[in-house]
Structures are given as C-alpha cells and as structure tokens.
Amino acid sequence: MLVRFCRRLLWGQRDCRYAIDVEMIFTQTSERIKDNVIQFANYLKSNGKDVVIYTYTSFLKEYLQSINDSFELWIAEYGVKKPNISAQYIGFQYSENGTVLGINGKVDLDEFSESILLGITSNFTLSSCNIQSSNQFINGYNSYRVKSMQTLLNGLGLKDTADNVLIVDGIFGILTEQAAMKLPIAQIVGYHNDAYTDWLEIQFNQKPDHFFEISMDNIIKTFQKSKRLIVDGKVGIETLMEILKQP
C-alpha cells in the first residue's frame, strides 16, 4: 500500500517542494518518529523530489531535534513575528485564522522564501489592493482607493445590508459604506494577521506584514490628528472614510 501511495506521489510535474506534515506521535518514541520521517524523505529524494518538513515549534524541539541538518523546515507557530527556533527555515505559518481575498472563512497564513519553489520565482503581488497615483475623485473619494476597498470587502465576504456583493466601481456610496461598517476595528491590541491589516499598510505606503504594530499605530494616530478625528489609533468607519479621500 505504501509503495503504491509513493508511486502516485511521483507522478506529474510540481513547482513546489513536497511537504511532509509531522504533527502526531501515534505512541512512537522520538527516535522512531524521526527515523520514519527521514526514511520517507530520503525515499522521495532518491526519486528526485525535493522535500520540506512541516511541523510546529514544540514538536520540532521535542521529537525532531537536528532533523534540520538534513532537510529544510516549514514551521508553524502562531502569535509571533518569527518561530522561536535557532534552525533555519524556508516556511513560516504564522496564523490559522487569517482571511485572504477570494476565499470565505478562515485560512492558514504563511510566509515562504523562494527556496520552497523548484526553480520558479513567485510573481504574486497585492496588485488588486495597490494604489495608483491618480486625481480621479468621485464624490470626494479617491476612486482607486475605493476600488481596492471594494475588492477587499468582496474578498472578505462582507456585503451590504441586502446581502449583495459590491460592484467594484470606485464609488463610495451607501452600499459600500454598509459593507465597510462590517469590518472589525483595526487597532494595535489583538488585531493582526489579516488581509485588512495588509490593505491598511498599503494605504500608507508601508510594506504589508500582516501585523498591526506600534509603527502602524503611530501612523494612524498621526493621520487622525491631521484630520481632526479622535486620536485613538483605531480604524473605524470615520477614519476609514478619510483614508479613502486621500490622493
């Protein structure tokens, strides 16, 4: 059965490394777990397939010590900026409760180096949320910013009060406002790892990193002060509307 399974793995072309997910012990000793992982990984490597070991920080430390000497790592650890390990890694899963454009519900969020790819450079961008320089305003709102917001809202599954998906037309009308009011309050305490955070960072020409941190808090407060809003670092609907009015 295992041989047949492995043969199926070897069919076809891939653009990423094979990931071996190791998270459970099944009453095995740490030595047996590591031996089994190494045996399976070496089988794939002997057939010309590059692999990466996926696990979480505590499991790595308890059961897979030094396995990184032979194989690349993809580490899961939530609520931190980087895994608490000394070993090098090519993948970092930092959340299991993220949201991304085009998918309803919670998803895992990861960061990878190009080493996860097999000779292919990733060309993924946040182009759908990027702000283009423009003087096109509709009813006082920057139409490019509004379009990117409408795209974000649709991707997050946030609709107007009649449960309609927004038309991405760059017009900040009552329907877009209704959907935008369903966004959570973005702030430094307890809010990170979300497409909305990335979108906000892009609005202020910051590199999106999924975390609403002190630097972003300061940017929002400075912006609120310049617009004579309540200076609390919280992005509610009033602050959001002012952001959409910027050139």
TrEMBL record:
InterPro entries found in the cross-reference section: GH (IPR017853), Glyco_hydro_25 (IPR002053), PGBDSf (IPR036366)
The keyword Hydrolase is assigned to this record: yes
PROSITE patterns: GLYCOSYL_HYDROL_F25_2
Coiled-coil segments on the chain, per record: none
E.C. numbers: 3.2.1.17
GO MF annotation, one: lysozyme activity
Keywords: Glycosidase, Hydrolase
GO biological process: carbohydrate catabolic process; cell wall macromolecule catabolic process; peptidoglycan catabolic process
Family, similarity comment: Belongs to the glycosyl hydrolase 25 family.
Descriptive protein name: Autolytic lysozyme
Upper classification of the organism: Bacteria, Bacillati, Bacillota, Clostridia, Eubacteriales
